[in-house]
Protein backbone atom coordinates (compact mmCIF):
# COMPACT_ATOMS: atom_id res chain seq x y z
CA UNK A 1 0.00 0.00 0.00
CA UNK A 2 1.41 3.32 -0.86
CA UNK A 3 1.14 6.25 -3.02
CA UNK A 4 -1.47 7.43 -5.43
CA UNK A 5 -4.45 6.79 -3.23
CA UNK A 6 -3.99 9.95 -1.29
CA UNK A 7 -5.14 11.86 -4.29
CA UNK A 8 -8.63 11.51 -2.91
CA UNK A 9 -7.70 13.26 0.29
CA UNK A 10 -9.60 16.25 -0.91
CA UNK A 11 -12.36 14.72 1.19
CA UNK A 12 -13.24 16.40 4.47
CA UNK A 13 -12.27 15.18 7.93
CA UNK A 14 -13.40 15.52 11.44
CA UNK A 15 -10.60 17.92 12.14
CA UNK A 16 -10.25 21.33 10.59
CA UNK A 17 -6.48 21.21 10.42
CA UNK A 18 -6.53 17.95 8.50
CA UNK A 19 -9.02 19.44 6.07
CA UNK A 20 -6.59 22.27 5.33
CA UNK A 21 -3.78 19.81 4.66
CA UNK A 22 -5.93 17.84 2.28
CA UNK A 23 -6.93 20.94 0.37
CA UNK A 24 -3.31 22.04 -0.01
CA UNK A 25 -2.05 18.66 -1.16
CA UNK A 26 -4.63 17.83 -3.78
CA UNK A 27 -3.24 19.47 -6.91
CA UNK A 28 -0.22 18.54 -8.94
CA UNK A 29 2.23 21.37 -9.66
CA UNK A 30 1.82 23.10 -13.00
CA UNK A 31 4.21 21.41 -15.44
CA UNK A 32 4.36 24.60 -17.49
CA UNK A 33 6.26 26.47 -14.79
CA UNK A 34 9.62 24.70 -15.01
CA UNK A 35 11.32 21.91 -16.86
CA UNK A 36 14.78 20.76 -15.85
CA UNK A 37 17.15 20.67 -18.81
CA UNK A 38 19.20 17.77 -17.42
CA UNK A 39 16.25 15.40 -17.74
CA UNK A 40 15.76 16.44 -21.36
CA UNK A 41 19.44 15.65 -21.90
CA UNK A 42 18.95 12.27 -20.24
CA UNK A 43 16.18 11.42 -22.67
CA UNK A 44 18.35 12.39 -25.62
CA UNK A 45 21.17 10.30 -24.12
CA UNK A 46 18.92 7.25 -24.29
CA UNK A 47 18.15 8.16 -27.89
CA UNK A 48 21.80 8.61 -28.89
CA UNK A 49 22.77 5.33 -27.21
CA UNK A 50 20.90 3.61 -30.04
CA UNK A 51 22.46 5.84 -32.70
CA UNK A 52 24.32 2.97 -34.38
CA UNK A 53 21.04 1.18 -35.03
CA UNK A 54 19.34 4.37 -36.17
CA UNK A 55 22.14 5.09 -38.67
CA UNK A 56 22.62 1.52 -39.87
CA UNK A 57 19.00 0.95 -40.87
CA UNK A 58 18.79 4.00 -43.21
CA UNK A 59 22.16 3.03 -44.72
CA UNK A 60 20.83 -0.41 -45.61
CA UNK A 61 17.70 1.18 -47.06
CA UNK A 62 19.74 3.56 -49.26
CA UNK A 63 21.95 0.73 -50.53
CA UNK A 64 18.91 -1.41 -51.28
CA UNK A 65 17.30 1.40 -53.28
CA UNK A 66 20.49 1.96 -55.30
CA UNK A 67 20.86 -1.75 -56.05
CA UNK A 68 17.23 -2.02 -57.15
CA UNK A 69 17.82 0.73 -59.73
CA UNK A 70 20.79 -1.02 -61.38
CA UNK A 71 20.32 -2.97 -64.61
CA UNK A 72 22.27 -5.99 -65.90
CA UNK A 73 24.91 -3.87 -67.64
CA UNK A 74 25.57 -1.94 -64.43
CA UNK A 75 25.97 -5.15 -62.48
CA UNK A 76 28.30 -6.61 -65.15
CA UNK A 77 30.51 -3.51 -65.07
CA UNK A 78 30.59 -3.60 -61.30
CA UNK A 79 31.69 -7.25 -61.35
CA UNK A 80 34.46 -6.53 -63.87
CA UNK A 81 35.62 -3.60 -61.76
CA UNK A 82 35.69 -5.66 -58.58
CA UNK A 83 37.68 -8.47 -60.27
CA UNK A 84 40.63 -6.12 -60.55
CA UNK A 85 40.20 -4.61 -57.09
CA UNK A 86 40.64 -7.51 -54.69
CA UNK A 87 41.78 -5.19 -51.91
CA UNK A 88 38.57 -3.16 -52.19
CA UNK A 89 36.48 -6.32 -51.98
CA UNK A 90 38.29 -7.51 -48.87
CA UNK A 91 38.04 -4.12 -47.16
CA UNK A 92 34.36 -3.67 -48.01
CA UNK A 93 33.55 -7.21 -46.91
CA UNK A 94 35.42 -6.74 -43.64
CA UNK A 95 33.60 -3.49 -42.94
CA UNK A 96 30.25 -5.10 -43.75
CA UNK A 97 30.90 -8.13 -41.56
CA UNK A 98 32.18 -5.93 -38.71
CA UNK A 99 29.16 -3.64 -38.92
CA UNK A 100 26.69 -6.52 -38.95
CA UNK A 101 28.49 -8.19 -36.03
CA UNK A 102 28.44 -5.02 -33.93
CA UNK A 103 24.78 -4.44 -34.74
CA UNK A 104 23.75 -8.00 -33.86
CA UNK A 105 25.81 -8.05 -30.65
CA UNK A 106 24.70 -4.67 -29.35
CA UNK A 107 21.04 -4.51 -30.30
CA UNK A 108 18.69 -5.37 -27.45
CA UNK A 109 16.70 -8.56 -27.82
CA UNK A 110 13.00 -7.90 -28.30
CA UNK A 111 10.81 -8.66 -25.31
CA UNK A 112 7.30 -9.84 -26.08
CA UNK A 113 4.27 -9.81 -23.83
CA UNK A 114 2.63 -13.12 -24.68
CA UNK A 115 -0.36 -12.64 -22.38
CA UNK A 116 -1.34 -11.55 -18.88
CA UNK A 117 -4.12 -12.20 -16.40
CA UNK A 118 -5.79 -10.32 -13.55
CA UNK A 119 -7.28 -11.86 -10.43
CA UNK A 120 -10.92 -11.25 -9.56
CA UNK A 121 -12.08 -12.24 -6.09
CA UNK A 122 -15.28 -14.10 -5.28
CA UNK A 123 -18.50 -12.14 -4.86
CA UNK A 124 -18.79 -12.77 -1.13
CA UNK A 125 -15.66 -10.62 -0.62
CA UNK A 126 -17.27 -7.50 -2.06
CA UNK A 127 -17.26 -4.45 0.22
CA UNK A 128 -20.01 -1.95 -0.62
CA UNK A 129 -19.96 1.40 1.20
CA UNK A 130 -22.63 0.49 3.72
CA UNK A 131 -21.00 -2.76 4.78
CA UNK A 132 -17.59 -1.13 4.93
CA UNK A 133 -18.79 1.62 7.27
CA UNK A 134 -20.86 -0.77 9.40
CA UNK A 135 -17.91 -3.09 9.92
CA UNK A 136 -15.60 -0.16 10.68
CA UNK A 137 -18.00 1.00 13.37
CA UNK A 138 -18.48 -2.47 14.87
CA UNK A 139 -14.74 -3.05 15.32
CA UNK A 140 -14.75 -0.42 18.08
CA UNK A 141 -11.32 0.83 17.00
CA UNK A 142 -12.40 4.09 15.35
CA UNK A 143 -13.82 7.19 17.03
CA UNK A 144 -16.65 9.21 15.50
CA UNK A 145 -14.28 11.68 13.86
CA UNK A 146 -12.37 8.88 12.13
CA UNK A 147 -15.57 7.18 10.97
CA UNK A 148 -16.85 10.42 9.48
CA UNK A 149 -13.49 10.99 7.79
CA UNK A 150 -13.59 7.53 6.19
CA UNK A 151 -17.16 8.09 5.04
CA UNK A 152 -16.23 11.29 3.25
CA UNK A 153 -13.17 9.72 1.66
CA UNK A 154 -15.27 6.83 0.35
CA UNK A 155 -17.92 9.17 -1.06
CA UNK A 156 -15.33 11.14 -3.04
CA UNK A 157 -12.92 8.32 -3.83
CA UNK A 158 -14.31 7.16 -7.18
CA UNK A 159 -14.67 3.59 -5.88
CA UNK A 160 -17.84 1.68 -6.68
CA UNK A 161 -19.89 -0.79 -4.65
CA UNK A 162 -18.20 -3.96 -5.95
CA UNK A 163 -14.57 -3.72 -4.83
CA UNK A 164 -13.09 -6.52 -2.73
CA UNK A 165 -11.47 -6.77 0.69
CA UNK A 166 -9.90 -9.98 2.07
CA UNK A 167 -11.84 -12.53 4.10
CA UNK A 168 -10.19 -11.59 7.40
CA UNK A 169 -11.59 -8.05 7.09
CA UNK A 170 -15.16 -9.35 6.72
CA UNK A 171 -15.06 -10.96 10.13
CA UNK A 172 -16.31 -9.03 13.17
CA UNK A 173 -13.98 -8.35 14.78
CA UNK A 174 -11.42 -8.57 11.93
CA UNK A 175 -8.96 -11.46 12.21
CA UNK A 176 -5.69 -10.38 10.61
CA UNK A 177 -2.97 -12.98 11.07
CA UNK A 178 0.05 -14.42 9.30
CA UNK A 179 -2.01 -17.42 8.21
CA UNK A 180 -4.80 -15.20 6.83
CA UNK A 181 -2.27 -13.02 5.00
CA UNK A 182 -0.68 -16.11 3.43
CA UNK A 183 -4.12 -17.31 2.40
CA UNK A 184 -4.88 -13.99 0.69
CA UNK A 185 -1.52 -13.99 -1.10
CA UNK A 186 -2.00 -17.56 -2.32
CA UNK A 187 -5.54 -16.94 -3.56
CA UNK A 188 -4.51 -13.86 -5.53
CA UNK A 189 -1.19 -15.06 -6.97
CA UNK A 190 -2.26 -18.62 -7.74
CA UNK A 191 -5.59 -17.43 -9.10
CA UNK A 192 -3.87 -15.12 -11.61
CA UNK A 193 -1.21 -17.70 -12.50
CA UNK A 194 -3.73 -20.50 -13.09
CA UNK A 195 -5.52 -18.31 -15.63
CA UNK A 196 -2.24 -17.30 -17.28
CA UNK A 197 -0.95 -20.85 -17.70
CA UNK A 198 -4.35 -22.01 -18.97
CA UNK A 199 -4.64 -19.23 -21.56
CA UNK A 200 -1.06 -19.52 -22.88
CA UNK A 201 -0.60 -23.31 -22.71
CA UNK A 202 2.84 -22.69 -21.23
CA UNK A 203 4.06 -25.32 -18.78
CA UNK A 204 5.37 -24.01 -15.44
CA UNK A 205 8.58 -25.97 -16.02
CA UNK A 206 9.29 -23.79 -19.05
CA UNK A 207 9.55 -20.63 -16.93
CA UNK A 208 13.16 -19.50 -16.56
CA UNK A 209 12.68 -16.19 -14.72
CA UNK A 210 10.23 -15.28 -11.95
CA UNK A 211 9.78 -11.79 -10.49
CA UNK A 212 7.25 -11.13 -7.71
CA UNK A 213 6.51 -7.74 -6.20
CA UNK A 214 4.49 -7.02 -3.06
CA UNK A 215 5.27 -4.03 -0.87
CA UNK A 216 4.01 -4.79 2.62
CA UNK A 217 3.87 -8.56 2.98
CA UNK A 218 7.22 -10.30 2.74
CA UNK A 219 7.16 -13.57 4.69
CA UNK A 220 9.80 -16.28 4.89
CA UNK A 221 9.87 -18.29 2.67
CA UNK A 222 9.22 -15.53 0.17
CA UNK A 223 6.21 -15.10 -2.09
CA UNK A 224 8.34 -16.15 -5.06
CA UNK A 225 9.28 -19.34 -3.18
CA UNK A 226 5.57 -20.00 -2.57
CA UNK A 227 5.03 -19.91 -6.34
CA UNK A 228 8.03 -22.15 -7.01
CA UNK A 229 6.66 -24.66 -4.51
CA UNK A 230 3.08 -24.53 -5.79
CA UNK A 231 3.92 -25.02 -9.47
CA UNK A 232 7.08 -27.08 -8.97
CA UNK A 233 9.19 -24.73 -11.05
CA UNK A 234 12.61 -25.94 -12.13
CA UNK A 235 15.57 -25.84 -9.79
CA UNK A 236 17.67 -23.37 -11.80
CA UNK A 237 14.96 -20.72 -12.08
CA UNK A 238 16.11 -17.12 -11.55
CA UNK A 239 13.61 -15.89 -8.95
CA UNK A 240 13.33 -12.43 -7.41
CA UNK A 241 11.11 -11.00 -4.68
CA UNK A 242 10.68 -7.20 -4.61
CA UNK A 243 9.34 -5.65 -1.41
CA UNK A 244 8.56 -2.15 -0.15
CA UNK A 245 8.66 -0.54 -3.61
CA UNK A 246 5.10 0.76 -3.76
CA UNK A 247 2.48 0.90 -6.48
CA UNK A 248 5.04 1.48 -9.25
CA UNK A 249 6.80 -1.82 -8.51
CA UNK A 250 4.95 -3.57 -11.32
CA UNK A 251 6.88 -1.53 -13.88
CA UNK A 252 10.11 -2.11 -11.93
CA UNK A 253 9.44 -5.86 -12.02
CA UNK A 254 8.89 -5.72 -15.79
CA UNK A 255 12.15 -3.79 -16.17
CA UNK A 256 14.04 -6.40 -14.13
CA UNK A 257 12.52 -9.23 -16.17
CA UNK A 258 13.45 -7.39 -19.38
CA UNK A 259 17.09 -7.10 -18.26
CA UNK A 260 17.18 -10.78 -17.35
CA UNK A 261 15.76 -11.69 -20.75
CA UNK A 262 18.65 -9.82 -22.38
CA UNK A 263 21.07 -12.19 -20.65
CA UNK A 264 19.24 -15.53 -20.72
CA UNK A 265 18.29 -16.64 -24.21
CA UNK A 266 15.22 -18.46 -25.41
CA UNK A 267 13.20 -18.45 -22.21
CA UNK A 268 10.08 -17.15 -20.50
CA UNK A 269 9.75 -14.68 -17.63
CA UNK A 270 6.71 -14.39 -15.35
CA UNK A 271 6.01 -11.17 -13.43
CA UNK A 272 3.51 -11.34 -10.56
CA UNK A 273 2.30 -8.07 -9.03
CA UNK A 274 0.09 -7.84 -5.95
CA UNK A 275 -0.45 -6.19 -2.59
CA UNK A 276 -1.56 -7.74 0.68
CA UNK A 277 -4.38 -6.09 2.62
CA UNK A 278 -4.89 -8.53 5.52
CA UNK A 279 -1.95 -7.61 7.73
CA UNK A 280 -1.80 -3.97 6.71
CA UNK A 281 -5.22 -2.68 7.71
CA UNK A 282 -4.91 0.30 10.04
CA UNK A 283 -6.97 0.19 13.26
CA UNK A 284 -6.08 3.62 14.64
CA UNK A 285 -7.43 7.17 14.43
CA UNK A 286 -4.63 9.08 12.71
CA UNK A 287 -6.32 10.47 9.62
CA UNK A 288 -3.27 10.46 7.34
CA UNK A 289 -3.04 6.69 7.98
CA UNK A 290 -6.76 5.96 7.47
CA UNK A 291 -6.82 6.79 3.75
CA UNK A 292 -5.31 3.47 2.55
CA UNK A 293 -8.14 1.59 4.32
CA UNK A 294 -10.62 3.43 2.12
CA UNK A 295 -8.83 2.99 -1.20
CA UNK A 296 -6.78 -0.20 -1.34
CA UNK A 297 -8.53 -3.38 -2.40
CA UNK A 298 -7.70 -6.99 -3.27
CA UNK A 299 -6.14 -7.57 -6.68
CA UNK A 300 -3.16 -8.98 -8.53
CA UNK A 301 -1.77 -9.75 -11.98
CA UNK A 302 0.50 -12.23 -13.71
CA UNK A 303 2.37 -11.35 -16.92
CA UNK A 304 4.15 -13.74 -19.30
CA UNK A 305 7.14 -12.26 -21.14
CA UNK A 306 9.28 -14.00 -23.76
CA UNK A 307 12.44 -13.39 -25.78
CA UNK A 308 11.71 -16.26 -28.15
CA UNK A 309 11.39 -15.11 -31.77
CA UNK A 310 8.69 -17.70 -32.43
CA UNK A 311 6.46 -16.06 -29.80
CA UNK A 312 6.16 -12.86 -31.81
CA UNK A 313 3.36 -14.41 -33.86
CA UNK A 314 1.14 -15.05 -30.85
CA UNK A 315 2.28 -12.25 -28.52
CA UNK A 316 0.01 -9.32 -27.78
CA UNK A 317 2.62 -6.61 -27.30
CA UNK A 318 6.28 -5.74 -27.67
CA UNK A 319 8.07 -3.78 -24.94
CA UNK A 320 9.44 -0.54 -26.38
CA UNK A 321 10.70 1.54 -23.45
CA UNK A 322 10.93 1.56 -19.66
CA UNK A 323 11.82 4.85 -17.96
CA UNK A 324 12.27 4.95 -14.19
CA UNK A 325 12.51 8.01 -11.93
CA UNK A 326 13.55 7.84 -8.27
CA UNK A 327 13.33 10.88 -5.96
CA UNK A 328 14.48 9.07 -2.81
CA UNK A 329 17.50 11.34 -2.37
CA UNK A 330 15.10 14.07 -1.25
CA UNK A 331 14.02 13.66 2.39
CA UNK A 332 10.45 14.87 1.82
CA UNK A 333 10.01 12.53 -1.13
CA UNK A 334 11.47 9.64 0.85
CA UNK A 335 9.04 10.09 3.76
CA UNK A 336 5.88 11.12 1.90
CA UNK A 337 4.58 7.51 1.94
CA UNK A 338 5.90 6.00 5.15
CA UNK A 339 5.01 2.91 7.14
CA UNK A 340 5.15 3.64 10.86
CA UNK A 341 3.36 3.36 14.20
CA UNK A 342 1.03 6.05 15.47
CA UNK A 343 1.10 7.40 19.04
CA UNK A 344 -0.97 4.43 20.20
CA UNK A 345 1.51 1.96 18.71
CA UNK A 346 -0.73 0.89 15.82
CA UNK A 347 1.02 0.31 12.50
CA UNK A 348 -0.10 1.84 9.22
CA UNK A 349 1.04 3.75 6.16
CA UNK A 350 1.17 7.51 6.65
CA UNK A 351 0.57 9.78 3.66
CA UNK A 352 2.18 13.22 3.68
CA UNK A 353 0.31 16.40 2.82
CA UNK A 354 3.13 17.08 0.32
CA UNK A 355 2.46 13.88 -1.61
CA UNK A 356 0.72 15.43 -4.62
CA UNK A 357 3.47 18.02 -5.11
CA UNK A 358 6.15 15.33 -4.84
CA UNK A 359 4.28 13.08 -7.26
CA UNK A 360 4.02 15.98 -9.70
CA UNK A 361 7.77 16.59 -9.56
CA UNK A 362 8.52 12.92 -10.15
CA UNK A 363 6.07 12.79 -13.04
CA UNK A 364 7.57 15.89 -14.64
CA UNK A 365 11.04 14.36 -14.47
CA UNK A 366 9.81 11.07 -15.90
CA UNK A 367 7.93 12.48 -18.88
CA UNK A 368 10.74 14.92 -19.65
CA UNK A 369 13.08 11.94 -19.98
CA UNK A 370 10.54 9.87 -21.87
CA UNK A 371 9.65 12.61 -24.36
CA UNK A 372 12.68 12.37 -26.69
CA UNK A 373 12.17 8.61 -26.96
CA UNK A 374 8.54 8.64 -28.06
CA UNK A 375 7.45 12.03 -29.36
CA UNK A 376 7.33 12.97 -33.05
CA UNK A 377 10.17 15.19 -34.27
CA UNK A 378 7.80 18.15 -34.66
CA UNK A 379 6.85 18.03 -30.99
CA UNK A 380 10.46 17.59 -29.90
CA UNK A 381 11.58 20.62 -31.91
CA UNK A 382 8.85 22.83 -30.46
CA UNK A 383 9.61 21.67 -26.95
CA UNK A 384 13.38 21.95 -27.24
CA UNK A 385 13.32 25.34 -28.99
CA UNK A 386 11.14 27.01 -26.37
CA UNK A 387 13.21 25.43 -23.60
CA UNK A 388 16.52 26.69 -25.03
CA UNK A 389 15.13 30.19 -25.60
CA UNK A 390 13.94 30.31 -22.01
CA UNK A 391 17.27 29.05 -20.61
CA UNK A 392 19.51 31.27 -22.72
CA UNK A 393 17.57 34.50 -22.71
CA UNK A 394 15.52 34.16 -19.52
CA UNK A 395 12.52 34.89 -21.65
CA UNK A 396 9.20 35.08 -19.87
CA UNK A 397 7.70 32.32 -21.97
CA UNK A 398 6.39 29.04 -20.68
CA UNK A 399 8.04 25.86 -21.97
CA UNK A 400 6.02 24.07 -24.62
CA UNK A 401 4.45 20.97 -23.11
CA UNK A 402 4.40 18.28 -25.82
CA UNK A 403 1.19 16.61 -26.86
CA UNK A 404 1.63 13.02 -25.68
CA UNK A 405 -1.56 12.07 -27.49
CA UNK A 406 0.57 12.13 -30.66
CA UNK A 407 2.90 9.51 -29.17
CA UNK A 408 0.39 7.17 -27.51
CA UNK A 409 -2.98 5.75 -28.44
CA UNK A 410 -3.87 4.50 -24.96
CA UNK A 411 -3.03 5.55 -21.41
CA UNK A 412 -2.94 3.31 -18.34
CA UNK A 413 -2.54 5.72 -15.42
CA UNK A 414 -2.22 3.98 -12.05
CA UNK A 415 -5.65 4.04 -10.42
CA UNK A 416 -4.34 5.39 -7.13
CA UNK A 417 -7.15 7.83 -6.51
CA UNK A 418 -9.65 10.02 -8.26
CA UNK A 419 -7.77 13.29 -7.91
CA UNK A 420 -4.54 11.78 -9.32
CA UNK A 421 -6.41 10.83 -12.47
CA UNK A 422 -8.12 14.24 -12.59
CA UNK A 423 -4.84 16.12 -12.35
CA UNK A 424 -3.01 13.98 -14.90
CA UNK A 425 -5.89 14.39 -17.32
CA UNK A 426 -5.61 18.15 -16.90
CA UNK A 427 -1.82 18.52 -16.96
CA UNK A 428 -1.23 16.15 -19.88
CA UNK A 429 -4.23 17.65 -21.71
CA UNK A 430 -5.88 14.26 -22.17
CA UNK A 431 -9.42 13.56 -23.30
CA UNK A 432 -11.97 11.75 -21.11
CA UNK A 433 -11.63 8.59 -23.21
CA UNK A 434 -7.88 8.49 -22.46
CA UNK A 435 -8.49 8.21 -18.71
CA UNK A 436 -11.63 6.10 -18.95
CA UNK A 437 -9.76 2.85 -18.29
CA UNK A 438 -8.18 4.30 -15.14
CA UNK A 439 -11.45 5.72 -13.79
CA UNK A 440 -13.40 2.54 -14.45
CA UNK A 441 -10.70 0.35 -12.92
CA UNK A 442 -10.76 2.49 -9.79
CA UNK A 443 -14.55 2.25 -9.72
CA UNK A 444 -14.77 -1.52 -10.25
CA UNK A 445 -11.68 -2.82 -8.42
CA UNK A 446 -10.37 0.08 -6.29
CA UNK A 447 -6.67 0.76 -5.90
CA UNK A 448 -5.07 -2.66 -6.44
CA UNK A 449 -1.59 -1.13 -6.15
CA UNK A 450 1.01 -2.25 -8.72
CA UNK A 451 -1.44 -4.47 -10.61
CA UNK A 452 -3.90 -1.66 -11.43
CA UNK A 453 -2.24 -0.82 -14.77
CA UNK A 454 -3.00 -4.37 -15.98
CA UNK A 455 -6.69 -4.12 -15.07
CA UNK A 456 -6.71 -0.91 -17.11
CA UNK A 457 -5.08 -2.56 -20.11
CA UNK A 458 -7.62 -5.39 -19.82
CA UNK A 459 -10.40 -2.79 -19.90
CA UNK A 460 -9.10 -1.30 -23.16
CA UNK A 461 -8.90 -4.77 -24.71
CA UNK A 462 -12.36 -5.75 -23.49
CA UNK A 463 -13.75 -2.62 -25.15
CA UNK A 464 -12.18 -3.73 -28.45
CA UNK A 465 -10.09 -0.58 -28.81
CA UNK A 466 -6.60 -2.08 -29.18
CA UNK A 467 -5.41 -2.09 -32.79
CA UNK A 468 -2.20 -3.28 -34.40
CA UNK A 469 0.70 -0.85 -33.88
CA UNK A 470 -1.19 1.09 -31.20
CA UNK A 471 1.12 2.31 -28.45
CA UNK A 472 0.23 2.08 -24.76
CA UNK A 473 1.73 4.16 -21.95
CA UNK A 474 1.60 2.60 -18.50
CA UNK A 475 2.56 5.06 -15.78
CA UNK A 476 2.63 4.41 -12.03
CA UNK A 477 3.73 6.10 -8.80
CA UNK A 478 5.25 4.44 -5.75
CA UNK A 479 6.72 5.06 -2.33
CA UNK A 480 10.33 6.09 -2.22
CA UNK A 481 9.27 8.27 -4.15
CA UNK A 482 9.15 6.81 -7.67
CA UNK A 483 7.45 7.43 -10.99
CA UNK A 484 7.91 4.72 -13.63
CA UNK A 485 6.73 4.36 -17.22
CA UNK A 486 6.46 1.41 -19.60
CA UNK A 487 5.65 1.75 -23.29
CA UNK A 488 4.19 -1.18 -25.26
CA UNK A 489 3.30 -1.60 -28.93
CA UNK A 490 0.44 -3.86 -30.01
CA UNK A 491 1.57 -6.53 -32.47
CA UNK A 492 -1.97 -7.23 -33.68
CA UNK A 493 -5.56 -6.28 -33.06
CA UNK A 494 -5.74 -7.44 -29.46
CA UNK A 495 -8.83 -9.09 -28.05
CA UNK A 496 -9.47 -9.78 -24.40
CA UNK A 497 -8.27 -13.18 -23.20
CA UNK A 498 -10.66 -15.65 -21.59
CA UNK A 499 -11.40 -15.35 -17.87
CA UNK A 500 -10.57 -11.64 -17.97
CA UNK A 501 -11.48 -9.38 -15.05
CA UNK A 502 -14.09 -7.50 -17.13
CA UNK A 503 -15.60 -10.55 -18.79
CA UNK A 504 -19.08 -10.35 -17.27
CA UNK A 505 -19.38 -6.60 -16.67
CA UNK A 506 -17.71 -4.73 -19.53
CA UNK A 507 -21.06 -3.88 -21.13
CA UNK A 508 -22.03 -2.00 -17.96
CA UNK A 509 -19.09 0.39 -18.39
CA UNK A 510 -18.31 3.22 -18.54
CA UNK A 511 -20.45 4.41 -15.66
CA UNK A 512 -21.02 8.00 -14.65
CA UNK A 513 -19.18 8.86 -11.45
CA UNK A 514 -20.89 11.57 -9.43
CA UNK A 515 -18.90 14.21 -7.58
Automatic annotation (TrEMBL):
Q: Which organism is it from?
A: Gossypium australe
Q: Which GO terms describe its cellular component?
A: membrane
Task: Give the annotated active site.
Answer: 247, 326, 410, 414, 443, 447
Q: Which SUPFAM superfamilies match?
A: Thiolase-like
Question: What name does UniProt use for this protein?
Answer: 3-ketoacyl-CoA synthase
Write down the top EC class of this protein: transferase
Q: What is its main location?
A: membrane
Residue intervals of the Beta-ketoacyl-[acyl-carrier-protein] synthase III C-terminal domain: 409-489
Pathway(s): Lipid metabolism; fatty acid biosynthesis
Look up keyword Oxidoreductase and say if it applies.
no
An example Gene Ontology molecular-function term: fatty acid elongase activity
Q: What keywords is this UniProt entry annotated with? A: Acyltransferase, Membrane, Transferase, Transmembrane, Transmembrane helix
Q: Where is the FAE domain?
A: 103-392
Q: Which residues form a coiled coil?
A: none
Q: Do you know which Pfam families this protein is assigned to?
A: ACP_syn_III_C, FAE1_CUT1_RppA
Sequence similarity: Belongs to the thiolase-like superfamily. Chalcone/stilbene synthases family.
State the reactions this protein catalyses.
a very-long-chain acyl-CoA + malonyl-CoA + H(+) = a very-long-chain 3-oxoacyl-CoA + CO2 + CoA
**Top-level taxon in the UniProt lineage:** Eukaryota
Kindly list the places in or outside the cell where this protein is found, as annotated in its UniProt entry: Membrane
Look up keyword DNA repair and say if it applies: no
Q: Which residues cross the membrane?
A: 44-65, 86-105
Instruction: Please give a single GO biological process term from the UniProt record.
Output: fatty acid biosynthetic process
> Which E.C. number(s) belong to this protein?
2.3.1.-
